[in-house]
From TrEMBL, chains A, B:
Name of this protein: Methylmalonyl-CoA epimerase
GO MF term set: metal ion binding; methylmalonyl-CoA epimerase activity
GO BP field: L-methylmalonyl-CoA metabolic process
PANTHER family: METHYLMALONYL-COA EPIMERASE, METHYLMALONYL-COA EPIMERASE, MITOCHONDRIAL
Domain VOC: 5-134
Stored PROSITE patterns: VOC
Organism for this UniProt entry: Sphingomonas psychrotolerans
UniProt cross-references to InterPro entries, sorted A to Z: Glyas_Bleomycin-R_OHBP_Dase, MeMalonyl-CoA_epimerase, MMCE/EMCE_epimerase, VOC_core
Family the entry assigns: Belongs to the methylmalonyl-CoA epimerase family.
Keyword field: Metal-binding
Length: 139, 139
């Protein structure tokens, strides 16, 4: 295992629309991608590009969205997770399982169209961590 | 204002020593810088390099460290702040002040040796945000 690119920082928000205006007008973001729904994860997603990494804005989608709990504790939104890239998702999963880290659910298609899984924050220094396979057409 | 590089993600930890072992042995970090004290901020700091950004591990330094409050709420540590680069720290400060964002304290020397300031998370979508002037010898 070799530490990969920090693909994105997941930032929860009660309103992607308001956050997009914030990143555009306050932070000066020049590339903001089209928002889309990711029903399997219970989130609406919008990527904001910085020159070297992305901010992934996530808003609750549906009543069962895991983001509702986060926003109940942090009504204005806040940092939700970090996502690192790996070359092979199955190898990465086997690595973390062998180390006794709790993998949250089966690997599934993530917001970039490649396989991802999440790791329990209590096993990761308090950081909810997403591991994603590097998109083959990038970098 | 133009959104700059995500220089680092600040991650609070009760023990930089334990976190360094975690990033080296669990996450496969290959470049971990030498830890150092930043008494003006009340933190001990250690940078972990990913291919495109850094993780800034921060541990409380002294009884008045602001990190004690964070660790009281998150005993295992967790995501603390995001840091973006700007070309001119004074321009950036004027920009945010003109927008009514609360600047936390005067600009001061940060962990990379250039001027930094912090912005109130309640004005920044719940994200404690550090703004730092890009080091002149980098990028």
């Amino acid at each position: 295992m070799k530490l990969g690119r920090l693909n994105h920082v997941g930032v929860a928000t009660p309103s992607i629309e308001a956050s997009v205006a914030f990143y555009r007008d306050m932070m000066g973001a020049e590339v903001i991608r089209e928002p889309f729904d990711l029903p399997a994860q219970g989130v609406k997603v919008c990527f904001v590009d910085t020159p070297n990494a992305q901010i992934e804005l996530i808003e609750p989608l549906g009543d069962a969205s895991p983001i509702h709990t986060f926003l109940a504790r942090n009504p204005g939104g806040g940092q939700h997770h970090l996502c690192y890239e790996v070359p092979d998702i199955d190898e990465a999963r086997a690595w973390f399982e062998a180390k006794g880290v709790r993998v949250l659910g089966a690997p599934r298609i993530g917001a970039h169209g490649t396989m991802i899984f999440f790791l329990h924050p209590k096993d990761m220094g308090g950081v909810l961590t997403e591991i994603m396979e590097t998109p083959r057409n990038q970098h």
